[in-house]
């Protein structure tokens, strides 16, 4: 099962507009991360927000976290054509999704992502 | 800083064959995780290596195995390949003691025919 689910699945906006993507998750988390993926290549880490934080900024990115609603949002302001990509939220994998765990850092669980298209 | 590097970038194998994928973690990172990403899906956690041992494993069959070397680099091996193993395989590294975010490589695109 997937812990995080992004919404919408696809989003197309004009260059210069703001893009908002949402992520919902199921169980308690230590932190939540957002990643970007261009054309099926590697994932680029965008931002990490810890469970005791409510909002975090990085350049044109703004992430919010509402642990009571088990949701997060990623806002990209003043979008550019280069922002066209798939965006994923990731949380610590649920123990029920592990065959076993012997300690160490937690693996991540991802949703299916939001495919963002910025129209020039 | 070279970041996370994976090899090869693309690979075509025949059903039933075996494949080995390689990953070098980001400098200073000691933990390597492997993910499988099917087309149109998010990455799925396969397993994680730390101190040359498998520490966590997702729900993948034992056809999927791995190894971590003393220099922290890692290999993913898949035996008896199935058509459904066709996917992008991603390696991620972290620094366990500092609990940093995971950095991903560019992936290996495996096609099983």
Mean pLDDT of chain A, rounded to whole units? 89
Helices of chain B, by number, come to 0
User: Could you tell me which chain pair has the largest interface and how many residues each side has?
Assistant: A-B, 31 and 37 residues
Which residues of chain B sit in consecutive blocks of at least 5 with pLDDT less than 50? none
Whole-Å distance between the termini of chain B? 36 Å
As a percent range, the share of helical residues of chain B equals under 10%
Q: Main sheet of chain A, how many strands, which sense, barrel? A: 6 strands, mixed
Counting DSSP E segments of at least 2 residues, the number of strands of chain B comes to 11
Largest sheet of chain B: 7 strands, mixed
Unreliable stretches of chain A (pLDDT < 50, length at least 5) are none
Strand proportion of chain A, as a percent range, falls in over 45%
List SSEs of chain A in N-to-C order: EEEEEEEEEEEE
Nearest-integer average pLDDT of chain B: 93
> SSE string of chain B, helix = H, strand = E?
EEEEEEEEEEE
Enumerate how many helices of chain A there are, as a single number.
0
Number of strands of chain A: 12
The computed structural class of chain B is mainly beta
Q: Indicate the radius of gyration of chain B in whole angstroms.
A: 13 Å
Instruction: Classify the helix fraction of chain A into a percent range.
Output: under 10%
Coarse shape of chain A: globular
Shape of chain B: globular
What does this molecule look like?
The complex is a heterodimer of chains A (120) and B (113). With 120 residues, chain A is mainly beta. Chain A has no helices and 12 strands. In chain A, a hairpin with a 2-residue loop joins strand 6 (55-58) and strand 7. Chain A is globular, with a radius of gyration of 14 Å. The relative contact order of chain A is 0.34. The mean pLDDT of chain A is 89. By secondary structure, chain B is mainly β. Chain B contains no helices and 11 strands. Chain B has strands spanning 5-7, 10-13, 19-24, 31-37, 44-50, 53-58, 64-68, 74-78, 87-94, 103-104, 108-112. In chain B, strands 2, 4, 5, 6, 9, 10 and 11 form a 7-stranded mixed sheet that branches. In chain B, a hairpin with a 6-residue loop joins strand 4 and strand 5 (44-50). The mean pLDDT of chain B is 93. The chains are: A mainly beta (120), B mainly beta (113).
């Amino acid at each position: 099962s997937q812990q995080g689910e992004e919404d919408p699945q696809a989003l197309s906006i004009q260059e210069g507009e703001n893009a908002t993507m949402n992520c919902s998750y199921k169980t308690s988390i230590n932190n939540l991360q957002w990643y970007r993926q261009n054309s099926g290549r590697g994932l680029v880490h965008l931002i990490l927000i810890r469970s005791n934080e409510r909002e975090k900024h990085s350049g044109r990115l703004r992430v919010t976290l509402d642990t009571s609603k088990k949701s997060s949002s990623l806002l990209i302001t003043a979008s550019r054509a280069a922002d066209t990509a798939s965006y994923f939220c990731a949380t610590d994998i649920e123990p029920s999704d592990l065959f076993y765990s012997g300690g160490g850092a937690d693996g991540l669980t991802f949703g299916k992502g939001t495919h963002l298209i910025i129209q020039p | 800083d070279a970041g996370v590097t994976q090899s090869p970038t693309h690979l075509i194998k025949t059903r039933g064959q075996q494949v080995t994928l390689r990953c070098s973690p980001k400098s200073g990172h000691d933990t390597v995780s492997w993910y499988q990403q099917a087309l149109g899906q998010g990455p799925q956690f396969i397993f994680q290596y730390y101190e040359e041992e498998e520490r966590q494993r997702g729900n993948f069959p034992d056809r999927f195995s791995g190894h971590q070397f003393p220099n922290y680099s890692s290999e993913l091996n898949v035996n008896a390949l199935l058509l459904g193993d066709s996917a992008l395989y991603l390696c991620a590294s972290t620094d366990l003691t500092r609990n940093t975010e995971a950095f991903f490589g560019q992936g290996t695109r495996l096609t099983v025919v």
